[in-house]
Amino acid sequence: MVVEVSDTEKLEQLLGEFQELVEQLDVQISFIRSGCCLEILSEFHRIYFSFKVLASTLKFDAMISLFQALDTLIIDAINDGRRLDQPVLDLLEESSHFMKKVLQDLQKGLYQTRNIFDFSKKVEHLLLPPHTRHNSPIMMQQRDIFLELGFGIDSPEEFRKGDGNYFECQVVLEKNVRFKKTRIFVVLRGLTQKDPGIKFGRIIPPLSDLIAERFDRQVKFLVKSKLTLPEITSVFENTIEIEQHKIQQFTPDQAVDI
Fold first, then answer.
1. Alpha helices in the chain, H assignment, sequence order
2. Contact 126, 85 (CB under 8 A)
3. Among the four 60, 120, 155, 188, which has the fewest Cβ within 10 Å?
4. pLDDT of residue 229
5. What is the CATH number of the domain that holds 72?
């Protein structure tokens, strides 16, 4: 299926970044043919992830899925011993040729979802089975990510102490997000970096469920902070893989009743 890109202004702003990433991918293909090392794999990871960020900005779901699959293939190689055999090397090289064609289409204002879906299937065919990834260092880090933040819920009494603005923050992650807990962590970390004194009064689902990753895509939490509504909102707007967010500011009495 070929569709015309509706947000042409945003696309034109990002075409230069697409072009640059295509050129960088071409360079890494020449390197990996000569021999593979962690540094080269890390560059592939950065490039594919950057492509995914651009696709997320344009809300190109098919392209997001493609680069998620390509990035997973690289992570399989980095963390889980996925051998870079001939089929994988051929596919990585094909990804460079494929993105040149995608770029040419985008320069014409076209987005061919069927071709992208078909190529995604080829990538997914080479991924490791999920049960073989249980020793991945990335996944090990996921289990402790909230504890590393030092994140905790204040008691109602502590939450009410002192001055500040009250906000209820709701976030819905994208359907194909890989590391849900990490994405929520990035939001919470962004808030605490902007205001180290921020207080969290309630979170749904409970913190224990977040740590265990027992939640779907939606998270809601109440905060008290010296930050303004635009400052709070900017944290969510600058976080990728968020489908939608809603921030409401409350009076102290309203916040206590929630």
1. 8-34, 38-58, 61-79, 86-107, 113-124, 137-149, 156-160, 180-194, 207-211, 229-237, 252-257
2. no
3. 155
4. 94
5. 1.20.120.160
Nearest to 232 by CA among 190, 203, 200, 181: 190
92 and 148 fall within a common domain: no
* Under 8 Å between Cβ of 225 and 192: no
Same domain, 13 and 126: yes
* Domain termination residue (choose one: 135, 169, 192): 135
CA distances from 41 to 7, 84, 121 (A): 33, 10, 21
Q: What is the pLDDT of residues 76-122, one digit of tens each?
A: 887 767 788 889 989 999 999 999 999 998 888 888 888 999 999 99
Number of domains in the chain: 2
User: Looking at 135, 162, 195, which one is the last position of a domain?
Assistant: 135
Contacts for 2-6: CB closer than 8 Å, 24+ residues apart: 2/110, 2/111, 2/112, 2/113, 2/114, 3/110, 3/111, 3/113, 4/109, 4/110, 4/111, 5/58, 5/106, 5/109, 5/110, 5/111
8 A C-beta contact, residue 106 and residue 15: yes
Q: Residue 38: which domain range? A: 2-135
DSSP classification of residue 129 = P
The Cα–Cα gap between 50 and 57 comes to: 11
Same domain as 180, residue 130: no
Q: What mean pLDDT value characterizes the chain? A: 80
Tally the C-alpha atoms within 13 A of residue 198's C-alpha that lie toward its C-beta: 26
**Cis ω before 230 (30° cut-off from 0):** no
- Given the structure tokens 């809603």, which residue do they identify? 246
Q: At what angle do helices 8-34 and 86-107 cross, to 10 degrees?
A: 150
